[in-house]
């Protein structure tokens, strides 16, 4: 092309970015500017796709700020918000979001989804409440993010509201949205409603099946989960690695040890799925819960990848739960955990409890000294409860809640009633 236009450069920049040739895409933008061509509404969003780190993205942000035509251009600013969220920089995204003179459904959804992906679920739901008050039309992508936050918080009332909103506005229950509704009900404790929704989803994809199998697994319905897995295979849907995690989890929560081992060792042959560390984690958890700790340790020792902190933590927890704790195995696990997550207070507490159960008080004192030397303190426990679509969070000794006096008074009444019934709590370090 003798004189390529901005449109032609945009297409090439996007092509390079989508092909993973990020450096070439950026060089092409520089060439375009050197030839005197001005960017349009699509240039910066395409250029952002070529940014492989936060520093480059901020460089594009500076270009947007310098160009008066784009300081309030909603498409470019929304893409910047999505970019920041994808790199976990929620603060920069929120700062940009708050300064935008105009926002559309894509902008709000990007912001809500960013918070949810960073596990800032409560803030995500607060944003959704603000979005509802603006009168902007809500789409299925927004609802998927909100349902994910509800599932993680156990906010079933908000989840029910979303489900009713879907029905009221005749929003098509596509596989992804259907899976989100099923997952929400499953994680919020209503597996019956999750099963009802599963039956009415018109098109069931692998994610839809994964949600119902995972929900059944979580509720200890191992046999039902395996039956659902069988129906999935019969329907012609090919399982993915997440499906196998859900199935193995079902075996774990229902104590189906032999069945779980069979599925794990045949997954490569039957489903062409290579076990990853999460599948090994499910197998180790299955064996640990069954009390066969030596076999669990053998699996970990022969894994093709290094066991992570989750696996060693499962082994340590199983050692602590065993009636006749295997101290040597627990010490092996603890040795690895100190290297992998040296600041995790729970591991030190578990190891101390194992020593205490064996009457090894010198080792208990040693573990406490180690925590003191490393300035490791027990994280206060916290709980969440949803009332009238508002999620309340409580921590140990927390006095921030406006109803703290009434709450502690009620807790004292409960404690008194328990004492009258001769209830005795089991207290460990």
UniProtKB/TrEMBL annotation:
The record's Gene Ontology biological-process terms are:
RNA modification
Q: What is this protein called?
A: Pentatricopeptide repeat-containing protein
Q: One Pfam match, by short name?
A: PPR
**Protein family per UniProt:** Belongs to the PPR family. PCMP-H subfamily.
InterPro entries, per database record: E2_motif, E_motif, PPR_At4g14850-like_plant, PPR_rpt, TPR-like_helical_dom_sf
Q: Which UniProt keywords apply?
A: Repeat
Q: In the record, what terms sit under GO molecular function?
A: mRNA binding
Please tell me whether the keyword Iron is annotated for this protein: no
Which PROSITE patterns does this chain map to? PPR
The UniProt entry annotates PPR repeats at 5-39, 104-138, 205-239
Species of origin: Acer negundo (Box elder)
Give the signal sequence positions: none
């Amino acid at each position: 092309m003798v004189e390529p236009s901005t449109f032609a450069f945009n297409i090439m920049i996007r092509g390079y970015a989508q092909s993973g040739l990020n450096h070439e895409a950026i060089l092409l933008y520089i060439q375009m500017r050197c030839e005197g061509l001005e960017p349009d509404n699509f240039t910066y969003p395409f250029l952002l796709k070529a940014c492989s780190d936060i520093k480059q993205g901020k460089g594009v942000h500076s270009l947007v700020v310098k160009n008066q035509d784009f300081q309030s251009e909603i498409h470019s600013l929304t893409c910047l918000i999505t970019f920041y969220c994808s790199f976990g920089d929620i603060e920069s995204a929120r700062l940009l979001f708050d300064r935008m003179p105009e926002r559309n459904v894509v902008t709000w959804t990007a912001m809500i989804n960013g918070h949810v992906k960073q596990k800032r679920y409560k803030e995500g739901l607060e944003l959704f409440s603000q979005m509802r008050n603006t009168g902007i039309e809500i789409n299925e992508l927004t609802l998927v993010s909100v349902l994910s936050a509800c599932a993680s918080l156990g906010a079933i009332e908000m989840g029910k509201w979303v489900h009713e909103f879907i029905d009221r506005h005749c929003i098509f229950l596509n596989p992804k949205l259907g899976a989100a509704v099923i997952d929400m009900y499953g994680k919020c404790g209503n597996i019956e409603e999750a099963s009802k929704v599963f039956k009415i989803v018109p098109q069931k994809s692998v994610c839809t099946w994964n949600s119902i199998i995972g929900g059944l697994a979580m509720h200890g319905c191992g046999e039902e989960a395996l039956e659902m897995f069988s129906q999935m295979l019969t329907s012609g849907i090919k399982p993915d690695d997440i499906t196998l995690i859900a199935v193995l989890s079902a075996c774990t929560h229902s104590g189906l040890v032999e069945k779980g081992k069979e599925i794990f060792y045949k997954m490569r042959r039957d489903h062409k799925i290579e076990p990853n560390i999460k599948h090994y984690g499910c197998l180790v958890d299955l064996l640990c819960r069954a009390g066969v700790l030596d076999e669990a340790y053998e699996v970990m020792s022969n894994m093709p990848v290094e066991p992570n902190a989750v696996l060693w933590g499962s082994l340590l927890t199983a050692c602590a739960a065993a009636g006749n704790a295997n101290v040597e195995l627990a010490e092996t696990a603890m040795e690895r955990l100190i290297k992998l997550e040296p600041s995790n207070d729970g591991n030190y507490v578990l190891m101390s409890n194992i020593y205490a159960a064996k009457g090894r008080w010198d080792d208990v004192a040693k573990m406490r000294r180690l925590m003191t030397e490393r300035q490791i303190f027990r994280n206060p426990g916290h709980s969440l409860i949803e009332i009238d679509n508002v999620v309340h969070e409580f921590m140990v000794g927390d006095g921030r809640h406006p109803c703290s006096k009434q709450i502690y008074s009620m807790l004292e009444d409960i404690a008194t009633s328990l004492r009258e019934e001769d209830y005795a709590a089991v207290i460990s370090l």
